[in-house]
Amino acid sequence: MRIALTTALLIGSNCFMTWAWYGHLKKTGWTIPTAIVISWLIALPEYILQVPANRIGHVDHGGPLSASQLKVLQEAITLTVFTCFAIFVLKERPRVQDYVAFGLILAGVAVAMSGRRDPAARAPDAAAPMPALEAAPAEPPADPAASR
């Protein structure tokens, strides 16, 4: 359930962000400052969806995904949303190379998403002292010259 909700929120957030980043390209009469302000206003809902998506999906908040898995999932969604946006809004057809690249990225997503991260398998706390790799000798080695 958490993956489905996370995915749905990420899809929604990416729809807003794609429109904010690329929707202004169709508005040739807008000045750059106008495009920036309107894009920022469109991007605000993206954050309202993105932040909860990441928190719901992340292991530290009861979700099944690591931050890396969330990022990879988000990138796959971004490319899917962008491809639809490019075709239907910008009226640009992706090239064969674009589809091949997209397929390779989806293969990477499959690799990253395979196997769930064990919440107990966390990186060591930066504040915690690192364990010694091997015990230090109790006393320094004897000087061979001193035994003569």
3D architecture notes:
This protein starts with a helix and ends in a 35-residue tail after the last helix. With 148 residues, the chain is an all-alpha fold. Helix 1 runs antiparallel to helix 2. 59% of the residues lie in helices and 0% in strands. It contains four helices and no strands. It has one domain. The longest helix has 26 residues.
Question: Summarize this, please?
Answer:
With 148 residues, this protein is mostly helical. It has helices at residues 2-22, 32-57, 67-88, 96-113.
Low-confidence stretches: none
Discrete helix count: 4
Rg of Cα set: 25 Å
Q: Note the main sheet.
A: none
How would the global form be characterised?
A: elongated
What percent of the residues sit in helical stretches (DSSP H or I)?
Answer: 55-70%
